[in-house]
What does this fold into?
Amino acid sequence: MAESTNALAFLGELISILATYTTKKPPRLKELERELYGSTDLQRLVLSEVLKIQKGDLDSEGEFWYDYQMLLMNLLERKLPLSEDELLEVIDYFIQADLTVGPVVTATELFLSDRAMSSTLRSSMESIRKQISKGYYGHSEHLRLRHRLDELLGTLPKIASRVDHDEPWTMRLISDTEQMPEPKRNVFCQLIEHLSIVSKAKPSSKWLQQAVASAARIETDQLQKYLTNWILTFTSPRSDVPHFSASLWDVAEPNADLMKGLIWIASQCANDDLIRAIAAAGLSGQKKIPGIGPRSTKVTNATIWSLSQIDNPLAIGQLAIMRSKITNKSVQKQIDKAINAVAQRLEVPPEEVEEMAVPTYGLAEVGLRVEALGDFTAELHVTGTTSTEIRWIKPDGKQQKSVPKAVKDNYADELKELKAAAKDIQKILPAQRDRVDLMQLKTKSWPLELWKERYLHHPLVGTLARRLIWSFQTKKQETPIAATCLEGQLVDSEGTPIKVNDAEVSLWHPIGHDHETIIAWRRFFEEREIKQPFKQAHREIYLLTDAERNTGSYSNRYASHVIKQHQYNALCALRGWTNKLRLCVDDEYPPTFINLPEWELRAEFWVEGLGEEYGADTNETGVYHYLATDQVRFYSIDAAQLSAHAAGGGYGWGQWRGGDEPEPLSLEEVPPLVLSEILRDVDLFVGVASVGNDPTWQDGGPEGRHRDYWQDYAFGDLSATAKTRREILERLVPRLKIADRCTFDDKFLVVRGDRRSYKIHLGSSNILMEPNDQYLCIVPSRGAGPGDKVFLPFEGDQRLAVILSKAIMLADDTKIKDPTILNQIGTA
It folds into this structure.
């Protein structure tokens, strides 16, 4: 009794000091702490008194509740040896108070280190286990606590308690494991338990070693099968919206953590199917949820790391596909870092990795894979940048349209892999096309034999390279030779075979060549109906204008446009520019920019948010719907950047920054190739994202504020891209059935129908009807139109196909059935 009274008095003095001091610890407090932590008996007495006081204040926290609580936690963290009764009292309090149970688990582990668990203690620990199972698992700490409790209780974890059940992939994982025989289920449960405990962006060596050791108890083909199914099912949405979100695509945090672990271990045993599943999960992680953002960037980052660890060209190919499809700049940087890591591992420059590691998908020659499946032969043909075809050849050499039944019955796995390869090719070729297109701004060249290996004769990349023009610089000739591939041999623009030995090869660019040379190459592709993978022979050239010489350091060629911000942001990412979404907030933003390390330059395009009314001019998260465009400038690559306030006011060098304002370069100092390619990109941004292209904006958009701009752009002067479009149409239209109904009038393709005549603007594709220039609104459909069936000499200009589709339809306007179009045309 006296000991209890003394302990209570000691506790009262200790708490009174703890509750009042703020910064410097009083000498008396130091004395009391030395006395307390120097005596195990005193600690146990104080612990008992604290528990009595705290249990009495469960419903209404007393004056010193927090101070008592912190003292209790400190006592338990000191590994105080407790009796079973004392431990049970502590557990009982933690359950009643609904507290974090980490200290209790630690105390129990210490208590059981030299004795067996009693039935009473087991019952209390099971209560603790149930308590933490009630919560929403958002933290790896909770998973570790459950794991420690399971070890104490001697029970294997139940997977269903580790995850949110409502996602298709977790439902499949739970179902698959529950159907396994017990020994197999136990092994999988132990692996999954470890995989669910993740806390970092990438696995530690220790974590990975433990995961590999656990996975080694499972047959490789079984592990691959389950991992492929679970990871691939991650790409499916929930069936119902969860209570904590407004989206079917939301990912619960513990599920995202476990998926990370699954993807990490998959890197250690990945076959082709598993590699594809990993990449699919990475792309799914970047699916945008309105008002939230990417579905799960942590899952995407896990796939990037995993693919970079796999020694298989297919994995690097999947990284290239991901980079071409993902617009999030930070994720693109993660992919670049991953490729750099691979390059370091292989001891080659980073830009070499993507060239070296392009998969062939079993193609034995350029664009063709031949595979015997019993009596039938399968031929996988690459028919375009985004298209493939599988042809089935019967024993008699004739072609069969459908998949032979014998192949379906006897070669199901081979058929599945063949179809997967065809789909992969359709995905990776656009990524390779974009990679090669972006080389127009690089000063890259290859020795002839290396170029043949990686481009001309590469089974996959060769399907692109053979439709491009290349420059061959030999030691004997001052002027490079330009050539492309025709029927397996190099030819010039006249189709004459040429021989090249010991040359440096680079991608041909029209700048610097005379008009006749460029026209000759354009005719080469048009007459032979060879479609280039991107504009090369028909590429626009942007030369310095007198107006730009007068302004000196900036170009206003693309100023004063109104563009759609999200569309613009996506285009910037695809072309390698860095842009930040402008929000209607009190903040500063740098210009949109692209670094050009080969030229030691940085190009900038100045844009600002448009509007002042939050909610009307922005979406629900404050992102501006539209931007206003301004100057294009060039700086030294290491020069500091100016900034502009989100609300507008122009770019400037704030006094708060100190130092001298960086000076832009004179446009005349910029190499012509760099100037042309940068202005071409900006022309693309404006040409695609301008509201003037939107046929529904005839009224000027919100409150009619941009009516004049829409009118000027929709039917104004032609950009360089539109002028190129006109040149192409002037050569293509005479070959069409509607040629006698078409003429060209300055900015328009004029089409004579039976009801009216129509003027299609060659820039925006918007339409005016004669004789009164009445506007005709036709919203292009998402499917293929008649213009898509007309041969075009290059890929990538969808508006050219739209113009042709509209022209073909309007030339035969008596067959139009759409009432919205007929009502506008009228009976005139």
